[in-house]
Design goal:
Length: about 325
């Protein structure tokens, strides 16, 4: 008879799935025009499930915004402070791509944050001649592409524009292609996870039967190979008890079921879960560490692992902040080339 962890289907937590459905529908219509019927059909759940979690659509919106806003602001503050300290002669400004978060921050805190278009318009109005954009994306994914497309519409309004690399740098042609950026991130996140776990070293964790699983978001974009490359990077560093997974199970070998099989086959009995995400938001708190049946913590426990969860984003790690700064410097150098 197949065990529970082998046959269960990986899905985002129900609350997050409903929040994502709401975001998707908000791109097409106003909030007051969205119905619970549309939300549950988008998520393929029933109305009882919705009302088990939320009183109404506004309750869902409040839940999502409170979780997303606090994490987004904390991450933005870390990066902005680090960049301003590194480049005191430059004017460092931030912009968010999620308008729903921008609106909530302004309503709750009275703080006005620009979206991409507003930030670019402001730069033009302020007479900025040389523009450097440092994305806080993990990789060259869909959001990065959209950002670049927006910036391209403004290129002729500046003397020069330079877009820095996302955290993991160039994607590469296949799963075996790794680079210096991925090595820095692999070393930094592993060191941070080992320290937080209380082990003296990664080898000591291995001897104790402990494995580290870093959970990313996953994507259908061609950049999904970056997750496979991170796995290859871990192996290249000799990190035998480190595994890479994704919420979306894209690429396929990064699904929760596949990672559970790999960790079990390697003989480990204890697992430390930690997000492979720049900001540790809802995916980390719910999909990874939540109590729902479909969270990674619950699924690993169902497979007889002892599980510990670390809730911390990549952006909180000093070496990761330093890598962003290095990417910014490379973009500045490109202006002068």
């Amino acid at each position: 008879m197949e065990s529970r962890w082998e046959v269960r289907r990986l899905a985002p937590s129900t609350k997050l799935a409903l929040a994502n459905a709401l975001k998707k529908l908000l791109q097409k219509k106003f909030l007051d025009d969205i119905t619970v019927k549309e939300l549950v059909e988008e998520c393929e759940v029933n109305r009882q499930t919705f009302y088990y979690h939320f009183q109404d659509i506004y309750d869902l919106l409040r839940w999502f915004l409170e979780h997303e806003t606090s994490e987004a602001l904390r991450g933005a503050d870390c990066w902005q402070d680090a960049l301003q300290a590194a480049y005191p002669d430059w004017s460092v400004r931030r912009a968010f791509t999620a308008q729903i978060i921008i609106n909530h921050v302004q309503a709750r805190d009275g703080e006005k944050i620009d979206n991409m278009t507003q930030a670019l318009d402001r730069a033009v109005a302020n007479g900025v001649k040389n523009l450097v954009v440092q994305p806080t994306h993990l990789m060259h994914g869909a959001e990065y592409d959209e950002m670049c497309a927006t910036i391209d519409e403004y290129r002729d309004r500046f003397e020069s524009v330079s877009i820095a690399e996302p955290l993991l740098g160039e994607v590469g042609s296949d799963a075996t292609v790794i680079n210096a950026d991925k090595e820095v991130v692999a070393k930094a996140i592993t060191a941070a996870a080992v320290e937080a776990s209380g082990f003296d070293s990664l080898e000591a964790a291995k001897e104790a039967g402990a494995a580290f699983v870093f959970m990313g978001h996953g994507t259908a974009h061609v950049a999904k190979v970056s997750y496979s490359q991170m796995s290859a990077q871990m192996q290249n560093l000799g990190y035998e008890n480190v595994f890479i997974g994704t919420v979306e199970g894209e690429p396929e070998e990064t699904s929760c079921e596949s990672v559970i099989e790999a960790v079990k086959a390697a003989g480990y009995t204890n697992v430390i879960l930690r997000p492979l995400m720049v900001v540790a938001g809802d995916h980390a708190n719910n999909d990874m560490a939540g109590s729902d049946d479909d969270s990674w913590k619950t699924m690993f426990e169902a497979a007889d692992f002892t599980v510990d969860c670390q809730i911390a984003g990549l952006g909180e790690i000093a070496d990761v902040q330093a890598l962003y700064i290095a990417h910014t410097q490379a973009a500045i150098d490109a202006l002068n080339a």
